[in-house]
Automatic annotation (TrEMBL):
Alphabetized InterPro entries for the sequence: CheY-like_superfamily, NreC/VraR/RcsB-like_REC, Sig_transdc_resp-reg_C-effctor, Sig_transdc_resp-reg_receiver, Tscrpt_reg_LuxR_C, WalR-like
UniProt entry keywords in alphabetical sequence: DNA-binding, Phosphoprotein, Transcription, Transcription regulation
Descriptive protein name: Response regulator transcription factor
Domain of life: Bacteria
Residues where 4-aspartylphosphate is found: D54
Length: 218
């Protein structure tokens, strides 16, 4: 059972999400929040698997709420909802630690699949959109830190190849084909990469690859 906290300042939006998710036996809504501060409090109290987070809300917005939930060290993963696919707020939310984002007008099946993917530790940004998003906001990249450079140095040459492939939007299957590896081997490499560079999912790995200059904008 995947537990979900819905965060949105619009009552009808929260009701719609709740009605949709309750149709699926493997998903359950355990709480709602109307603004960021309430989201942080309820995430700590309820410990949901996934927080469905609106970005633009009065008071504390979804970006700051995401940052605080992630920094708390809890297990909740954040799926951000935004109106525009290249919304700068969405990029900032990803940098704050969100596991991905979807548009608010996503199809019901896409939303459900996204929640399940985030709960399983994956990202929910389509590969092409990941590249498009990060390319659009490269001016925001602060450059790598000394710790990031040390983390990069821990990777083997093969792991660097895999991380580069992830950052260019390839799936595990496509990486396996490109590098002539078994898909299970690619999965093992991905798991090792995430551990060595200290990130939670593929989206954060992509940002790391850009931050450190391993991959540069097209």
């Amino acid at each position: 059972m995947t537990t979900v906290l819905i965060v949105d300042d619009q009552a009808l939006q929260r009701l719609g999400f709740s009605m949709l998710l309750e149709q699926h036996p493997d998903l359950t809504v355990i709480g709602e929040a109307t603004h960021g501060a309430e989201a942080v409090r309820k995430a700590a109290e309820l410990k949901p698997d996934v927080v469905l987070m609106d970005v633009r809300m009065p008071g504390m917005d979804g970006i700051e709420a995401t940052r605080r939930i992630i920094e708390s060290g809890g297990r909740s993963r954040i799926l951000v909802l935004t109106t525009f696919d290249l919304d700068e707020y969405a990029y900032d939310a990803l940098r704050a630690g969100a596991s991905g984002f979807l548009l608010k007008d996503a199809l019901p099946d896409e939303l459900v699949a996204g929640i399940r993917a985030v709960a399983a530790g994956d990202s929910v940004i389509a590969p092409g959109l990941t590249r498009k998003l990060i390319d659009a906001f490269t001016s925001h990249l602060p450059g790598h830190t000394l710790e990031q450079q040390r983390q990069l140095a821990r990777l083997t040459n093969r792991e660097r190849e895999v991380l580069t492939a992830i950052a260019t939007g390839l799936t595990n299957t496509q990486i396996a084909e490109r590098l002539s590896l078994a898909e299970s081997t690619v999965k093992s490499h991905v798991s090792s990469i995430l551990t060595k560079i200290g990130v939670r999912d593929r989206v954060q790995a992509v940002i790391f690859a850009y931050d450190t200059g391993l991959v540069r904008p097209a």
